[in-house]
C-alpha cells in the first residue's frame, strides 16, 4: 500500500486492486478521488490536491 500526503495534511491511499496486466504489474487505484486527482501528460504526471489546489508534477525520466 502506498500513500500520498500533501503539505496541507490531505492524505489518501493508493491501494492495489488485485488485477494485473499481461506483465504481472498490478493496477492501483486512489482510495478517495475527492481528495486527489491525477492527470497524465505527455512527459509527466500531475497530482492535484483537491483540498488546497496545490499541484505536484512527477517528471518522466
Ligand atoms: Zn493540499
Overview of the structural elements:
- The protein is mainly β and 61 residues long.
- It is built from no helices and 6 strands.
- Strand 5 and strand 6 form a beta hairpin.
- Bound molecules: zinc ion.
- Zinc ion is lined by residues 6, 8, 10, 49, 51-52, 54.
Topology:
Layout: E1 2-5, E2 11-20, E3 26-30, E4 36-40, E5 44-49, E6 55-59
Antiparallel strand pairs: 1-2, 2-3, 4-5, 5-6
The site of zinc ion has 7 residues, from loops.
Output the structural class.
mainly beta
Count the E strands. Answer: 6
- Strand content bin: over 45%
Q: How many structural domains does the protein architecture include? A: 1
Largest sheet: 3 strands, antiparallel
Strand order of the largest sheet: 1-2-3
Separation of the first and last Cα atoms = 23 Å
**Total of helices:** 0
**Poorly predicted runs of 5 or more residues:** none
Morphology call: globular
The Rg value, from CA coordinates, equals: 13 Å
Order of helices and strands: EEEEEE
Mean model confidence by pLDDT: 94
Helix content: under 10%
Summarize this structure briefly.
With 61 residues, the protein is an all-beta fold.
Tags for this entry?
3-stranded antiparallel β-sheet, binds zinc ion, mainly beta, 0% helix, 61 residues
